[in-house]
Amino acid sequence: MQPESLMKKEKQDEKLAREAMDDTYEFIQKMSYQYDPMLIAAYMVIQGLGLYKTMLSPEDYEVMCEKIYEGRNRIKEIS
Predict the structure, then answer these.
(1) What dihedral do alpha carbons 25, 29, 32, 33 form, nearest 10°?
(2) Helix 37-55 crosses helix 58-70 at what angle (to 10 degrees)?
(3) What value does the mean pLDDT take over residues 25-36?
(4) Side-chain half-sphere of 64: how many Cα atoms within 13 Å?
(5) CA dihedral 71, 40, 47, 29 (to 10 degrees)
(6) What is the DSSP string of 39-70?
């Protein structure tokens, strides 16, 4: 891939990532009004880890779980 087309793809990927994040946030907000937010959080963690386990090799899954654990104190509260 040429540098220009690579940069264009990176911008498209960033845009899609932002849209996915915004859509997910909106969905979580709506669900939190209808259900206990602790249940929503638990199911999100279960689903997220399940996706990682499905998509990653066993070694990469372990690395991802370690990274999540190491970053646990950088998580901000949702306002």
Answers:
(1) -170
(2) 140
(3) 93
(4) 14
(5) -80
(6) HHHHHHHHHHHHHHHHHS-HHHHHHHHHHHHH
DSSP 3-state of 6: helix
Q: Per-residue pLDDT averaged across 42-51, rounded?
A: 96
Q: How far apart are CA 70 and CA 5, in angstroms?
A: 35
Question: Mind listing the pLDDT tens digit for each residue in 2-17?
Answer: 677 777 888 899 999 9
| Residue corresponding to tokens 């498209």 | 12
Specify the 3-state DSSP secondary structure of 12: helix
d(CA 78, CA 24): 13
Three state DSSP letters for 21-47:
HHHHHHHHHHHHHHCCHHHHHHHHHHH
| Structure tokens belonging to residue 27 | 């969905």
Model confidence, pTM:
0.72
